[in-house]
Design brief:
- The structure holds 2 protein chains of 2 kinds.
- In chain A, strands 2-3 form a two-stranded parallel sheet.
- Helices cover 44% and strands 21% of the residues of chain A.
- Chain A is built from 3 helices and 5 strands.
- The radius of gyration of chain A is 15 Å and the shape is globular.
- In chain A, helix 2 links the parallel strand 2 and strand 3.
- Chain A starts with a helix and ends with a helix.
- By secondary structure, chain B is of the alpha+beta class.
- Chain B has one domain.
- The longest helix of chain B has 21 residues.
- The mean pLDDT of chain B is 89.
- The chains are: A alpha+beta, B alpha+beta.
- At the A-B interface, helix 1, strand 1 and strand 2 of A face helix 2, strand 1, helix 5 and strand 9 of B.
- Strand 2 of chain A pairs antiparallel with strand 1 of chain B, so a sheet runs across the interface.
Amino acid sequence: MCSMLAVLLLFEEISGLKVNFHKSMLTGINISVSWLDEAAMVMNYRTGSIPFIYLGLPIGGGFQEVEFLETGC
Amino acid sequence: MYKVLVKVLANRLREVIGDVVSDSQSAFVKGKQILDGNLIANEVVDEAKRMKKELLMFKVDFEKAYDSMDLNYLNSVMANMNFPTLWRKWISECVGTAKASVLVNGSPTEEFPFERGLRQGDSLSPFLFLLADEGFNILMKATVEADMFTGYSVGRLGEVHLTQLQFADDALIIGEKS
């Protein structure tokens, strides 16, 4: 987990590309919320929940639900 | 004139870009689509739910991605990818010709070349960005090899390991709790 942060910071250092921690998001499946919250706090991230939007489309969640499809558009 | 040259270089780079960037990248690569990333992510989430596996997802957003690209870094990435010196000279000529001057108290300073930033709207920029993004891929790969991070293994046999999906500056890191 911490190694991920190290990778991002290292990449920022060498390439100049800075990670926007306010817009970044940490989420998990079958992982306790308390663990996620703790990890997010240590690394200063936001936590999110499934389904979330990636590249403009929702990830996760059941496709059968009409509601889910509507929120995606 | 500049536009013609850049177009020629971009067309040449387009042919080889698929070979130098890794499979996790789905932007600007021939034969790949934007939906590939979404599809894979969705399937992974679905599988993790069904098989009750632990899955950690981290959406990364790079701030001002084009503007903060270090040009020296880009050059060294290309050198490590074995692009010939002549080619790298052409590229640095293209990205490094822009000069800027700042107005300080109403009087302009001396002109200075940029050290950072790709040009927005230039047909070469997307490809150069991909090359630089590959550095991130390599870093991730190194962390996985050093056992500091574990990717998500797909399927019962766990033969396919997934660590990240990328679409230009939008990355999604996928892994197990560690």
